[in-house]
Amino acid sequence: MDRQAIRASLLELLQLETFESVDHVTDATNLRTGLKIDSVDLLSMALHAERKFGIAIGSDEFEGVKTFGDLLNLLQAKIAARPKTKAA
User: Fold this and answer.
1) Distance (Å, rounded) from C-alpha 72 to C-alpha 65?
2) Full residue range of the structural domain in which residue 52 is found
3) Residues sharing a CB contact under 8 Å with residue 63, sequence separation 6 or more, in sequence order
4) CATH number, domain at 76?
5) Where are the alpha helices (DSSP H) in 19-67?
6) Has residue 87 been placed in a domain?
7) What's the pLDDT tens digit per position in 5-17?
8) Domain count for the chain
9) Closest CA relative to residue 68, chosen from 8, 2, 1
10) pTM for this structure?
11) Residue 44 lies in a domain
């Protein structure tokens, strides 16, 4: 899955979580101050992302996540590290 597809999915999750427009969101947008996302919202988004992308995210992995770009980087790395499944 490429970065743009992950970005689109993450923006969709963000809009569902915050009920706000995400048109202004860039990689530099701060999750807490720019999007007013608290730790509960971030946890909820993480749970949705885990299900959507088939990944597992440890709570300690969020320590360095401050911006939308940080979150996108984390998801991209987790998705890239998923075990590859073979087609039947």
Assistant:
1) 9
2) 3-80
3) none
4) 1.10.1200.10
5) 39-53
6) no
7) 999 999 999 898 8
8) 1
9) 8
10) 0.85
11) yes
